[in-house]
Amino acid sequence: MRAVSTSHRLVSPTEVSPVTSSARTAPRARRVGTDRWRDPRLWLGLLLVCGSVAVGAKLLAAADETVAVWQLTASARAGTPISADGLRTTRVHFDDAAAVSAYWPTSQPLPENARLLRDVSQGELLSSAAVTGSDVFSLRQMPLAVSSSGFPTSLSVGDHVDVWAVPQEEGAEDPSRVLADATVTALGDGSSVGSGGDREVVVSLPSDTAVAEALGSLNGATVVLIVIGV
């Protein structure tokens, strides 16, 4: 059998395929960059971010204008002792700064042995006029028949009033103040309680009131209420 010899020839670098050589030496493609500061989408995004920050700052500022006041957790009748146990804190925004003084802020402690001067409802904000200390509190209450001429149009429960008696007879004594700084604890619904269509008003009597003397002064007289502090 005839032997066959195989020879191997080395390939020189110059014999490399032109295509292969050019692929190795060709430079990479470079992208042409653009100026990002001229992109309108960037400016639109910045405007949106700034607007969001401004709105958030305004909302936070409005939240800081709220005032923490006491709110009743349950209904209670006049004369009931009141403490922080029956209250919860709520924050309220008042459009009128003067209205803040009408309610009891949580930053101000309740008076010792505080009691309610009138009936209150669950969820009601604790009015400063509805609370008093034991030194001036009295469970005694007096109903008054007040005509439209002696009834202030703005009168509401919790107001403090002076009660005056105006004699109806000619030549009688001058009008006199029967009760000083009495608290209105209830108001009638406007229905007539007498021939003159008077409206019932219930006031809490100060502890030092001479009831017999007050009733004598009011007998046969027209009752006029003067609201204090308005």
Provide structural commentary.
- With 230 residues, this protein is α+β, with helices and mostly antiparallel strands.
- Among the domains are: 67-132, Type Iii Antifreeze Protein Isoform Hplc 12 (Alpha-Beta Complex), CATH 3.90.1210; 141-227, no CATH class.
- It is 18% helix and 24% strand.
- The chain has helices at residues 18-25, 40-64, 211-218, and strands at 67-72, 87-92, 115-116, 131-132, 141-146, 160-167, 176-187, 199-204, 221-227.
- The strands form 3 sheets. A 5-stranded antiparallel β-sheet has the order 5-8-7-6-9. Strands 1-2 form a two-stranded antiparallel ribbon.
- The model is unreliable at 19-23 (pLDDT under 50).
Count the beta strands.
9
Unreliably modeled segments: 19-23
Distance between the termini: 136 Å
Helix-strand pattern, N to C? HHEEEEEEEEHE
Tell me the quaternary state: single chain
| Rg over C-alpha atoms, rounded to the nearest angstrom | 43 Å
Give, in spatial order, the strands making up the sheet with the most strands.
5-8-7-6-9
Number of helices: 3
- Tell the overall outline: elongated
**Largest sheet, described in full?**
5 strands, antiparallel
Structural class, judged by helices and strands? alpha+beta
What share of residues is helical? Answer: 10-25%
Mean pLDDT: 76
Strand coverage percent: 15-25%
